[in-house]
Design goal:
By secondary structure, the chain is mainly β. It is built from one helix and 22 strands. The protein is 2% helix and 49% strand. Strand 5 and strand 6 form a beta hairpin. The longest helix has 4 residues. The relative contact order is 0.10.
């Protein structure tokens, strides 16, 4: 589902092979945002509540339950289509406190959400998750001197590794599109006004 134009309401719909039915929303908010993901035999998705913040929502086949944010005033869960992924038995997605702080990677184990700051919190999380060589690859979000970059980041389930972009200058972006091919990871890389294909192996990143 796309972002609604107020006062549109978005619901989860289900089709059983013969007919379509609508799943009731748990409150008067705008409802489901984007596509669901399957985790632990339930559907999870981003949900805009009546306070216009975004929560993680769970559908168990009968009804929708909203998972509490860390704080009720937080912006909450980021775009699921860009970030949500199941890795090593947990659900990962982006989360924002407000419009000014960098988003954080969050791990959900089915019960509890845990924030996973990258590099002591000075590198944010920018989505574009992809599993490669049993690691979670993702886009970072980092401000450096006179520049803003989005580096490629590896998460092994415990530790983060930030990889330097393969060129210098302003605005070096890893913008996702990851795919494994011939034992390497390929993705779209953006520098200034040019887009390039970048390749990531376990040894190096190159253009």
């Amino acid at each position: 589902c796309a972002l609604p134009i107020s006062p549109a309401i978005y619901n989860l719909a289900k089709y059983d092979g013969n007919s379509i039915s609508i799943v009731a929303n748990p409150d008067t908010g705008s409802g489901i945002m984007g596509s669901p993901i399957i985790y632990n035999n339930n559907l999870y998705f981003r949900y805009q509540n009546a306070n216009k913040t975004f929560q993680l929502a769970k559908y168990d086949g009968n009804s929708i339950t909203l998972i509490n944010n860390f704080n009720s005033t937080d912006n909450g869960v980021n775009d699921f289509n860009k970030s949500a992924i199941v890795y090593n038995g947990n659900l990962y997605f982006g989360y924002s406190t407000d419009n000014f702080s960098k988003p954080t990677l969050v791990r959900f184990d089915g019960t509890t959400m845990t924030k996973l700051p990258i590099s002591n919190g000075n590198v944010g999380y920018n989505g574009s998750t992809f599993i490669y060589n049993s690691n979670l690859m993702l886009a970072g979000d980092q401000d450096v001197t006179n520049s803003h970059i989005i580096p490629l980041v590896k998460f092994d389930g415990t530790n983060f590794t930030i990889y330097p972009n393969p060129s210098s200058g302003c605005c070096r972006y890893y913008i996702g599109g990851g795919i494994a091919y011939n034992s390497k990871m390929y993705y779209c890389y953006y520098e200034d006004l040019n887009r390039r294909l970048a390749v990531r192996s376990e040894e190096h990143t190159s253009e």
